């Protein structure tokens, strides 16, 4: 009886501590509250008392337990209490940061409003308050590549002036953020501490070898450039910035150019690579040749038509029909070149005929412009007015009546009808079909505090990435914000619900084969999907074209695969590469975490029709789209 009362009491105190943590997070994130009010609120709310109470109850419960149960209770209690201790440390840091910012602001205000001392009364000459620099100096967050430019400006505007050391310290603190500011915790405003602060920052960030290494890493991790001019321009600007930074440190392109070219080529869209090679005449590049070729391609793109950006709206929506019409500009039909909308073309009336023109003219099926044919390279973020899929409204096929066989066509409009797919699959279930592998993986994931291995399903049919609450708890992740979402197709979520719900969003790292870490943002769900049937994984090791490959999902004899993380389209192309290995069986594609296997397994069939139906229906759920409302709770 005593143990039950103690357990209930501990549960109540834990719930109270959780509510207090949520309240403190709300205060910190609330932009409507002033810094002084936040400091007052945080000083008034302390986790110390709750943590101490819970610890006392833990000890009392351990006294009531049998000796063989004490160790398990201690481990479980420590795991739970670590969450509160981590939260307490985070709040202490946030309170200290707010107090430092408030002290710096007060010191600056005091200097700016101080009366001007007459020259005769001044013991020593010094700058007046009107001579203080404006607080529009750049901020420094701890990026070693930005240190040199930050310090050059700060040294010129503040450090070289004759202000007192304490005043310079306050200016310095006010322009530091994140890791850089954390490195000076514990130092108060004084002349001596200003010198110490400069020494600490220089020791950490004024190291040429580390800066050179950071430039190398940034070059290797440049984002992929698609076939649009704006994307290629941004890619070239970042490339030139890092090359100039290395040259300023005495490292010429001759030292690393040949190796860098290999990485850069892989980051260009296939259409861009084809154009560059056509002008070059061969695929052998030096770094200078590649830079010049990219610059030339950007200029060529500048002479061609590029889609205008969408008109800004008061409320952003995830899907829309098309670009807003331009009243002052005549619309040219891409099918017949007449002056009318593509959807009103009378010469090519059916979607089938229009799709043939798209294929002949090599147009994009989404925006109907030339220059790219791959949908992932299309800058148009809107879709069909009828079904919201990524194809133009003029190419939309009407839904067929139940039981009507689909028309054969060589064109592809990009229109997916999930319900129709379900019916077709249900009709085909009586046939013996091959087992189909999905892109699954087992990879290390980590947080600031711990790491573990997780089961991943990589599927760009989902617009965003999801993670299970179980894995979030295991990694000790804390929500960075909440979002309002309308989800469909997930376990435990009704498909008929038309009201959005609020979900937590967390950040975690995915570790690649080379040791590099990729930061991923995910929405937290209690469960993503039922365990996937995976009875034929061990057979992959016998397929000749997959041998000697490091598979992201190692072969095993497990019949089921529980999904911890669903990688969606928001992170898909940061993980998946473009090298495909084909053979008699599923296809392997290279990725950040190893080769991903997907596709049918020839000559192997599921043991029963029932298991095939269950597998396919769960697959259809994973294909459902996620509609995200433009409402976010900070």
Task: Please characterize this protein's 3D structure.
This protein is an alpha+beta fold and 634 residues long. The chain folds into five domains: 2-106; 133-206; 211-302, no CATH class; 313-403 and 410-416, no CATH class; 435-633, no CATH class. 42% of the residues lie in helices and 12% in strands. It has helices at residues 2-29, 35-44, 48-64, 67-113, 147-159, 165-174, 178-182, 191-205, 208-220, 229-248, 257-266, 270-280, 287-302, 351-361, 418-428, 469-475, 569-575, 609-623, and strands spanning 435-437, 440-446, 451-458, 466-468, 481-486, 501-511, 517-525, 532-533, 560-561, 565-567, 576-581, 587-591, 596-601, 627-633. It is globular and about 80 Å long.
Features:
5 domains; 634 residues; six-stranded mixed beta barrel; alpha+beta; globular; single chain; four-stranded antiparallel sheet; 42% helix; 12% strand; 14 strands; disordered C terminus
Structural Rg: 30 Å
Q: How far is the first residue's CA from the last residue's CA?
A: 43 Å
Query: What best-fitting shape do the alpha-carbon axes yield?
Result: globular
Q: Could you say which structural class the secondary elements and strand pairing correspond to?
A: alpha+beta
Mean pLDDT: 76
Q: How many domains is the backbone divided into?
A: 5
Total beta-strand segments: 14
Strand coverage percent: 5-15%
Number of helical elements: 18
Range of helix content: 40-55%
Order of neighbouring strands in the sheet with most strands: 2-3-10-4-7-6
């Amino acid at each position: 009886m005593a143990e039950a009362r103690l357990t209930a009491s501990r549960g109540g105190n834990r719930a109270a501590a959780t509510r207090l943590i949520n309240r403190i997070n709300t205060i910190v994130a609330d932009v409507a509250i002033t810094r002084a009010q936040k400091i007052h609120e945080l000083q008034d709310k302390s986790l110390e008392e709750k943590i101490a109470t819970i610890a006392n109850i833990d000890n009392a419960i351990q006294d009531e337990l049998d000796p063989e149960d004490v160790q398990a209770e201690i481990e479980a209690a420590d795991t739970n209490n670590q969450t509160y201790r981590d939260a307490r440390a985070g709040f202490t840091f946030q309170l200290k940061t707010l107090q430092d910012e408030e002290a710096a602001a007060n010191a600056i205000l005091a200097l700016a409003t101080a009366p001007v001392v007459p020259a005769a009364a001044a013991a020593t000459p010094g700058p007046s308050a009107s001579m203080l620099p404006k607080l529009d100096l750049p901020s420094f967050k701890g990026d070693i590549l930005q240190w040199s430019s930050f310090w050059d400006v700060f040294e010129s505007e503040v450090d070289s002036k004759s202000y007192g050391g304490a005043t310079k310290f306050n200016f310095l603190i006010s322009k530091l953020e994140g890791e850089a500011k954390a490195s000076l915790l514990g130092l108060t405003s004084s002349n001596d501490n200003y010198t110490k602060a400069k020494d600490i920052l220089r020791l950490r960030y004024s190291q040429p070898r580390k800066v050179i290494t950071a430039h190398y890493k940034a070059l290797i991790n440049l984002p992929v450039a698609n076939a649009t001019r704006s994307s290629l321009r941004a890619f070239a600007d970042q490339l030139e910035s890092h090359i100039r930074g290395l040259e300023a440190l005495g490292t010429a392109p001759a030292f690393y150019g040949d190796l860098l070219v290999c990485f850069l080529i892989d980051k260009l869209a296939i259409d861009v690579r084809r154009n560059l090679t056509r002008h070059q005449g061969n695929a052998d590049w030096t770094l200078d040749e590649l830079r010049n070729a990219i610059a030339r391609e950007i200029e060529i793109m500048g002479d061609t038509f590029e889609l205008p950006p969408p008109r800004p709206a008061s409320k952003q929506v995830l899907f829309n029909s098309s670009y807003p019409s331009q009243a002052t500009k005549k619309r040219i039909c891409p099918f017949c070149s007449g002056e009318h909308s593509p959807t009103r073309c009378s010469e090519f009336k059916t979607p089938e005929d229009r799709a043939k023109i798209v294929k002949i003219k090599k147009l994009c099926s989404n925006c109907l412009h030339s220059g790219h044919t791959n949908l992932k390279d299309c800058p148009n973020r809107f879709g069909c007015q009828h079904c919201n899929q990524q194809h133009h409204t003029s190419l939309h096929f009407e839904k067929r009546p139940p039981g009507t066989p689909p028309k054969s066509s060589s064109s592809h409009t990009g229109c997916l009808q999930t319900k129709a797919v379900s019916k077709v699959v249900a009709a085909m279930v009586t046939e013996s079909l091959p087992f189909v592998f999905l892109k699954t993986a087992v990879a290390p994931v980590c947080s600031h505090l711990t790491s573990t291995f997780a089961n991943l399903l990589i599927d760009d049919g989902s617009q965003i990435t999801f993670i299970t609450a179980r894995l979030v708890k295991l990694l000790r992740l804390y929500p960075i914000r909440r979002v309002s979402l309308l989800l469909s197709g997930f376990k435990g979520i009704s498909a008929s619900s038309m009201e959005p719900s609020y979900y937590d969003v967390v950040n975690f790292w995915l570790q690649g084969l080379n040791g590099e870490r990729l930061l991923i943002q995910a929405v937290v769900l209690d469960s993503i999907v039922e365990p996937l049937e995976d009875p034929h994984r061990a057979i992959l090791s016998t397929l000749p074209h997959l041998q000697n490959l490091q598979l992201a999902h190692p072969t095993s004899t497990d019949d089921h695969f529980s999904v911890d993380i669903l990688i969606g389209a928001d992170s898909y192309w940061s993980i998946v590469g473009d090298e495909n290995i084909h053979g008699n069986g599923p296809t392997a594609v290279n990725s950040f975490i190893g080769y991903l296997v997907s596709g049918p397994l020839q000559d192997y069939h599921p043991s029963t029709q029932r298991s095939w139906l269950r597998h396919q229906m769960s697959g259809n759920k994973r294909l459902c789209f996620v509609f995200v409302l433009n409402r976010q709770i900070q």
